[in-house]
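Lab channel / #folding
Pinned by the channel admin:
"Please post every new chain as: sequence first, then the structure tokens as a reply. Keep commentary short and put observations after the output so the thread stays searchable."

First post following the new format, from NK:
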Amino acid sequence: MKRDAYGRLDENSYPRTHPVGPTEPSAPWLVRLADDAGMFRLLCFDFDGKEAGVVSPDLMEQAVDDCDALSGLLDGLRIAHVVCRSSGTGGRHIWVALYGAPSKMVEALARAARANYATLDHGMLCNARTGGARPPLSPHRDGSSSTVLRGHLDSLTAPSVSTSELEALTVLLDASRPAVRRTDSAPSGPVDARYASHRPLSATGQAHMATIDGGSNPSWTGFMCLLAAATAGWSLAEVVREARTAPGMEHYRTKNTSRGTRKLRSSVEATARLERQWAKAQQYSALQAPLPERREPADLTELTTIVAATEAVLSGFRVSPGRWGRSEKAVHQRTILSAIAYLCLQTGKRVVAASIRDLALMGGLGRTTAADALTALAGAGLLERVSVSDGGNAAEWRLQADLSTSYGTLRSQPLDNPRPPGELFNVRAELVSLLEAQLTDGRHDLFTRGGLGHTAGQLYAALALETSVTVESAARLVGIGSRHAATILSRLRHHHLIIKHGGGWVRARRDLRDGAARILGVAGLLLARADRYRGEREVWEWWQAELEQMMTAPRKRSRRPHVSSRTLESVDTSPAERSWPRYPRNTERRADHRSARHLVAVGALSPDSRWQYLGDAA
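Reply from TO:
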């Protein structure tokens, strides 16, 4: 590292070269992982508990669990390694010495590891030219130093790991990779078959809840339990009750001591952590709600096209930010295009059926705004409408595979040189994770029109990937003017969502979006919008049933009670057999849609209501 004119080490950069010898440098240093020929001689798996340059307690514990999980795999393969606490903040490094491995092999291993461990910073493993890390025992610019926790340094000075062992590790990581749809992931350890939750869950959710001691990665298992509960419609009180006894929720009762043991959390700490993670699980659950049944692509050609198209979309956002930030409408189009790409990756289909309301809820927008954005994207050739909405079926959209901005632009991966299957699925997992983070961070009551606006949400989401931003860099990041960026940063700072860091701004350690939404009077707006859209769908289905009844011959019509009458017996019916009461009419015998909307809003037609009928019940 190079000190500035005042003798400080403010930037995390290493511009100088120091020869190997008995005298150590006067400032912190790193070692390159690969030699001049591009062959990797060292591997460093960097587990970072920071978000936008700020240490997050939740992420730091997850980083420790991720590190222990990977260390366990290395032990199982008898690969010699050293585990270090990288600095005083608590991050983790795993070091492995190699006889020599080509960059392509190491990059495939890095992507497979990243698909398994969300806190892994794998950038240095994908950079054979300048990728490096601070070695064990070396100092950190904050005054702390790298400390060895497990392993022997002799294993780093005398390499013993071959390429065949790296290939075995890559295969093992590919096999243990979580499902792209989080709720379909397999448990991380043995399951207690005797355990049963107090409310029904999906099969995978029940397995996560019953995972003994949280499995090999308790923090990941704990979040999977919360996501399964959120998808099943549980309340926070029910989750708190389950966390007391569920084997898979060990993470919310104890914490990792980094010595192979766990210790009890205080009740205050456990409650606070559970509430923060529950809010995050609800956000991810809302994003995955429109997804259809799981379907893997029929062949890798289809998935290759989807991945290439999504990479082109994200590259376009990065290299042409002005196109996607020049107006509020352009920002809306960026969000809807991201949502379509996310659905394509999750479903494994090039053509996805997506209703306007579902896309609007995924992006935190209104239905008319989403409809305008879809029309504009189709007009620009970025989306293709394969079929229009028909009856109860949503319109189908295809994400265009060629989104190059100029003639002759090279593809990120030529079609005649496809990625290997393992690498393809790992890239897909990376893209899904990136889009999930962008959509969930920007989807909040605070970032609606009555709050700080949708553009503010896009900037807030983008800050998660930046160490710090200035007004100018924030403007370039989302493609807006400096004055507009300064206004947004000022409002985010006013609500304590960002803090000063060095010469710029970063996201605050605590997420205070809920409090800011309450102050601005927009708390609960997205939930109310989702309820309203759900009611609109039910009214529409009711009216379609009424139209079908009206067009049926009088003698063949079923006898239906009025919505206000009481049934003589309770009958359970499946959704396909649902029978509707008579549609409300006004004094002129015309359909009264306002009354129908009111009846749906008060729950008169809900499945658990007494207004559920079967066929000719009268």
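NK: The first strand starts at residue 31 and ends at 32.
TO: also worth noting, Residues 405-415, 566-575, 610-618 have pLDDT under 50 and may be disordered.
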